[in-house]
Amino acid sequence: TERQVNHLTRLIDELLDVSRISEGKIVLQTQPLDLLDVIAQSVETIRPFIDSRRHQLTKSIPEGALYLRGDFARLSQVVSNLLHNAAKYTDEGGAIELSVTIDRGEVTLAVRDNGIGIEPELLPKVFDLFEQGNRSLDRSQGGLGVGLTLAHRLVQLHNGRIEAFSAGPGLGSEFRVILPCLTEVK
Fold first, then answer.
1. Other CB atoms closer than 10 Å to residue 114's CB: what's the count?
2. Which of 4, 35, 67, 168 has the most crowded Cβ, counting Cβ within 10 A?
3. CB–CB of 87/49 below 8 Å?
4. Pairing relation of β-strands 95-103 and 67-70?
5. Sign (positive or negative) of CA dihedral 52, 55, 174, 141
6. Whole-angstrom distance, CA of residue 133 vs CA of residue 162
7. Is 48 exposed, middle or buried (0-12, 13-18, 19+ CB in 10 A)?
8. Strand 95-103 to strand 56-60: parallel, antiparallel, or no bridges (unpaired)?
9. Using one digit for the tens of pLDDT, what is the confidence trace for 41-52?
């Protein structure tokens, strides 16, 4: 029951955040920050859930610091949501990969899994509020489809974009967050 209470609390918080963003009431607390610190915080937050499902999490992250202008708490929320979804929609003992690349002033954070994948007809709507796809037994872990909507809107507030990819059911999925990065801190 504690798990259910935590799940409901998280869901209500996410719905409130989506509502606040829609009404223009979320103000980001932006500052230069190291994306690698955001990732470390997010992984630490979600690690117990990943471990409870016996997933293998691998990271491919550059050495050193990777600065961008953003809201630490909100970017942590985005990365945590993506990792949580990857763990939730991947059978126990699955593989999750988190990678970071930099190209032409943008940083791309990708979360890939070998989970249940996404139906082709759902892919264009995956960031829409309450969109879940078919409620089959393998999606019994499903929420209300709020986390991806929230992630999408928070990334947009950071002048970035988020993309979803999947070759189809049973073939895993990948979510990429692309954000402008700073080459140096001013």
1. 19
2. 35
3. yes
4. unpaired
5. negative
6. 19
7. exposed
8. parallel
9. 999 999 999 999
